[in-house]
Backbone:
């Protein structure tokens, strides 16, 4: 009988222990929160447990630890009257600082810094009411420039991994240059050009305020790169011609005072394929692009050849000279790579852009552009073969 009671007592203790453990585990599980941490245009998620809240009047500071390692702080936030205000920090699981920034009224507002795992500053910039604004430095990409109300603006200086620095110019300067150019041409009485108020086709603008419509940043980067690129100017003259006399003719495609390549941009996005880059007589000059193609050749072959034809009317508005005989044609972007064909078609009439591209008299010169993570030009491969 005594032994029987002992067994019952032991079972009760075990049941109590298991019940208590289950309740504690359940309570802990309920306190686990998934937090999303913004790192520039990317996001990471942490499973955390909020532990301490330090309060003084309307001010409070909350601290979260990693759910799988409660000895390490994951996030620190500050609040004022239930609004996130002040310093914000997020940490790596190793304990190193990952993100340090400032909030105002639940929005990023002020200096924002991202550190790599070694503690070095990788990205640094400024937010204004949740939007990128002013100077940003992508140190790990060696790319520097300004944002204006969330959009890249003005001159961005980047290091091209295949040789030296280059400058990309974004709309506030790029479009101003186009507008100034058109006004100069239109107000010059010695020219026979018809007067136009802006270098875009008004009939293609759906915006009632005649505002330039936005296009994908990949295409914008490519257009701005080609519009003011000294190297492409020389390549076109060399690849399209055989004599100095012929090259003189091609001066009409460039405004040297404005340092501007004068082209139309096709609104028709076409599967351009991968040749001639697969049949070049010599190795590709861009190691970055050569490595990408070698590692993923079938993906790029199929991607550049099989996507459907589509129209993006906004692209045409970024023409530097809509009536130019030089026309830019774009493929779709395949894994951060874009093919651009620069097509010369003289004496344009009423042909559609697709008809022009497929016309036997169209002369084509191809460029492959590879972009970095923030959609800036990282590497470029130019067609080596002469244009037929």
Residues:
């Amino acid at each position: 009988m005594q032994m029987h009671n002992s067994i019952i007592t032991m079972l009760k203790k075990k049941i109590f222990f298991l019940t208590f453990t289950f309740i504690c585990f359940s309570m802990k599980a309920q306190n686990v929160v998934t937090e999303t941490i913004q790192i520039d245009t990317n996001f990471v998620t942490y499973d955390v447990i909020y532990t301490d809240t330090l309060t003084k009047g309307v001010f409070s500071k909350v601290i979260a630890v990693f759910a799988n390692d409660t000895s390490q702080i994951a996030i620190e936030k500050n609040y004022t009257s239930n609004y996130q205000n002040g310093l914000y920090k997020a940490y790596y699981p190793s304990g190193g600082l990952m993100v340090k920034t400032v909030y105002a009224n639940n929005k990023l507002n002020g200096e924002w810094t991202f550190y790599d795992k070694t503690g070095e500053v990788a990205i640094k910039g400024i937010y204004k009411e949740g939007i990128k604004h002013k100077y940003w430095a992508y140190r790990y990409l060696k790319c520097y420039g300004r944002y204006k109300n969330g959009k890249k603006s003005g001159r961005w200086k980047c290091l091209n991994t295949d040789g030296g620095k280059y400058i990309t110019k974004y709309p506030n300067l790029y479009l101003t240059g186009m507008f100034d150019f058109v006004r100069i041409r239109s107000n010059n009485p010695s020219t026979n050009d018809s007067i136009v108020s802006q270098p875009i086709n008004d009939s293609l603008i759906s915006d009632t305020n005649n505002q330039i419509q936005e296009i994908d940043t990949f295409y914008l980067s490519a257009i701005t790169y080609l519009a003011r690129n000294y190297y492409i100017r020389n390549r076109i003259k060399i690849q399209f011609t055989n004599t100095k006399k012929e090259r003189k003719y091609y001066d009409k495609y460039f405004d040297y005072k404005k340092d501007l390549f004068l082209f139309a941009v096709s609104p028709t996005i076409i599967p351009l394929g991968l040749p001639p880059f697969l049949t070049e007589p010599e190795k590709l000059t861009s190691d970055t692009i050569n490595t990408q193609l070698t590692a993923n050749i079938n993906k790029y072959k199929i991607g550049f050849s099989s996507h459907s034809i589509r129209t993006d009317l906004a692209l045409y508005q970024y023409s530097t000279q809509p009536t130019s005989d030089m026309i830019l044609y774009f493929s779709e972007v395949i894994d951060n790579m874009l093919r651009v064909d620069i097509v010369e078609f003289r004496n344009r009439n009423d042909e559609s852009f697709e008809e022009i591209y497929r016309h036997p008299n169209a002369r084509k010169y191809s460029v492959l552009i590879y972009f970095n993570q923030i959609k800036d030009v990282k590497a470029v491969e130019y067609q080596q073969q002469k244009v037929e």
Summary: Residues 20-30, 171-210 have pLDDT under 50 and may be disordered. The chain is about 25% helix and 35% strand. The chain has two domains: 33-140, 165-382. The CA atoms of residues 156 and 168 lie 5 Å apart.
